């Protein structure tokens, strides 16, 4: 009986350590700099400052972005642990200093682990609503 109890206890402790290793933060590196075509760098946001699109942008963010980027855009969503690269905080100066066109390219066109959303967010107005929402995360 004592041997069985001891074996169960040792197994439980080993399992706890294994599970904890998956939940501990990983030392992830940011990916390489984005190579964004000039077309996007210079792209103007035709809906810049349009507050009527805030709910649309928020809804799209919650549907498509939150699982990786987190509720507040801090890169701490539940799926972020499964990614190989670290994500930047949308409220950071580094992200907020990007042009709207650069954010559009990074968010809609994507690369590597950042998927392409052109077919999931079909309408230009909706895409810009998402960019405006990301801008509001500062």
What report would you give on this structure?
With 138 residues, the chain is mainly α. It has a single domain, classed as Cytochrome c-like domain (Cytochrome Bc1 Complex, Chain D, domain 2), CATH 1.10.760.10. It has seven helices and two strands, in the order αβαααβααα. The protein has helices spanning 2-23, 38-41, 54-64, 66-69, 93-96, 100-109, 124-135, and strands at residues 29-30, 85-86. Strands 1-2 form a two-stranded parallel sheet. Helix 3 packs across helix 7 (124-135) and helix 6 packs across helix 7. It is elongated and about 75 Å long. It starts with a helix and ends with a helix. The mean pLDDT is 88.
- Put simply, the count of helices is 7
Q: Let me know the number of strands.
A: 2
Q: Quick check: average pLDDT?
A: 88
Quick one: biggest sheet?
Answer: 2 strands, parallel
Radius of gyration: 20 Å
N-to-C span: 60 Å
- Name the CATH architecture: Orthogonal Bundle
Oligomer: single chain
Shape: elongated
Order of strands, main sheet, comes to 1-2
Which range best describes the helical content: under 10%, 10-25%, 25-40%, 40-55%, 55-70% or over 70%?
40-55%
CATH class: Mainly Alpha
By helix and strand content, what is the structural category? mainly alpha
Number of domains: 1
CATH superfamily: Cytochrome c-like domain
Find the CATH topology: Cytochrome Bc1 Complex, Chain D, domain 2
What percent of residues are in strands?
under 5%
Order of helices and strands: HEHHHEHHH
Uncertain residue segments: none
Signal peptide: 1-16
Pfam family, one: Cytochrom_C
Keywords: Heme, Iron, Metal-binding, Signal
Domain Cytochrome c: 52-138
């Amino acid at each position: 009986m004592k041997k069985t109890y001891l074996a169960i206890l040792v197994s439980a402790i080993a399992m706890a350590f294994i599970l904890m290793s998956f939940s501990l933060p990983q030392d992830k590196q940011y990916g390489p700099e984005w190579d964004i075509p000039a077309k996007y760098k210079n792209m103007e946001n035709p809906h810049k400052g349009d507050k009527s699109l805030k709910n649309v942008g928020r809804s799209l963010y919650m549907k498509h972005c939150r699982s990786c980027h987190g509720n507040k855009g801090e890169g701490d969503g539940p799926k972020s642990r499964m990614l190989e690269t670290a994500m930047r905080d949308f409220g950071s100066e580094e992200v907020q200093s990007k042009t709207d066109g650069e954010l559009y390219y990074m968010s809609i066109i994507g690369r590597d682990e950042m998927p392409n959303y052109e077919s999931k967010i079909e309408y230009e107005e909706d895409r810009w609503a998402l960019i405006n929402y990301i801008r509001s995360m500062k």
